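Annotated sample (chain length 317).
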Amino acid sequence: MKTEIKTTNVQSQGKDSKCSPLSSLYCNLKINVTGKLKDNDLNKLYNCSLCNSCHLATFNKGTREKAVTKSLITHHVAEIRKNIMESGNSYGIKTVKSKSSQKTIETLLFRGCTPTHKTPEILAASESLLKRKGIKYEIMDDETCCGNLLFNLGDTGSGQDAVRRNIDKFNAAGVKRIITICPGCYNAFNKYYRTQNGFKPEIILAVDLLDSLTMESEDLMIQDPCHAREKAGTLRKILPGSQNKSASPCCGAGAGVMAHNKLVATKKARKTIENRSERIVTYCPFCYLNMSSVTPDKIVDIYMLLNDCLVDSPIHY
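Output written by the structure step:
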């Protein structure tokens, strides 16, 4: 996507600007009438995590897309785009890629940006569980971002570039099924890749492969992530003693909020955690990353929890 980038000077760090559902409506109207948005407008627009509790997530996302097409691009959107284009991940972390020959991959474990670069403990636990279950898979050394975040930021052009780049790799390797750890990747493959010609792999969220495991515990509450709420039943089958409701509609960090306004993401996470006696179980690496930064001892990842319990054997197939 070769669009001139005119980044705004929105300085969100340290500001606690609330995101009202009306902000999306106001910004959409303003951009349609004037073709412009002030920095404060963009700040509020991107303080939204697109959890859809207000039922305006689609509207907000559409407004972001209009802003980007008019080159009204905040610093964090431009930075994330650059990171993915240049480093292959949203964090801009440089990695050394091995020059291995092209191989055929029937089942691919798509590790994702956050498990690979920010929560390697979740990645390690996931791989350990898959191996314990006898599930054979391979990885790509040159894996690049699925693009889900770009679409949520309204940068659909760059998102489509990421989709095309990955589909070319998957087709070349003959991938038939893709296992994801991150619900965001799971969402992207099902929502943005399915519409592309030549993309036919089966998409599996790793937790679905563990539904034969059960662990009894009464001090757990599950945090259902925005991009995999349909898996809520699977988690409660694995953890039958957990609280039946979700800890929160959203951890507060999604759709770029953590990069745009860390204070908002942290405040939302703290509100979810405070005054709870139960430990909160996540099955989204990004939820885990945000919430564990607030209270590490109260947050546990499902893959890490199951893997640790298998060592002690109080778990059933």
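Annotation: The two ends are 48 Å apart (CA to CA).
Annotation: Confidence is low (pLDDT under 50) at residues 1-17.
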